[in-house]
Amino acid sequence: MIKYILFIFLILTTTAQGKISLGSSILYAKQNHPTLKFKSNTDQLKLTSLNIGYIEKFEKITIGLYTNRILNVKLKRKATDGISNFISKSKTKYNLIQIGYIKKNIMPTFFIADTILEQELYYNNIKISEQKDRVYLFGTGLNIFLDKNIVFNINYIMPSGKIYLQSGFSFGFNYLF
After folding, report:
1. What angle do CA 62, 65, 71 make, to 5 degrees?
2. How far, in Å, CA of 70 to CA of 38, rounded?
3. pTM, entire model
4. 46 band by pLDDT with thresholds 50, 70 and 90
5. Which of 29, 60, 147, 164 lies 20 to 30 Å from 44, alpha-carbon distance?
6. Domain ranges for the chain
7. CA of 170: how far to CAs of 7, 46, 82, 157, 173, in Å?
8. Looking at the domain that runs over 2-8+27-176, which CATH code has it been given?
9. Dihedral angle sign, alpha carbons of residues 41, 122, 50, 165
């Protein structure tokens, strides 16, 4: 999928009418892992990545391409299996294509994200497992243009059984230049 996103990005940039986007977001994911339970879901409410993108506008329709692979740090969370305590470290990397419809300062969107979830599990500071899963995540969102260059967004991420995702949300700000 990355090849297709790069191809679309190159085609869109030839028109030179788009805008570059730089921003950050908070990702909240509710997982239903069969053996591990996270002690808190609020511990993931942290900025963990910087995203960069390119947005092209065609009348009222926009197409945006984004990635957070440039700057991304691991999220550390406490987990338990009911007997022992663990530390889970995870990193979510994505390439995303988003399509939206602008109406005044609001833009509802739909997106597809080529996502890689890297997870490590530690017991007494010793890594006992690591896992890397690649999934395509789908979702909808709402972008609110606070002015012509500042965008607040909220997105809903649909469930994915492969990574035990029941649902997810992201909240973010982007600056357009």
Report:
1. 140
2. 28
3. 0.86
4. confident
5. 147
6. 2-8+27-176
7. 26, 11, 29, 8, 10
8. 2.40.160.20
9. negative
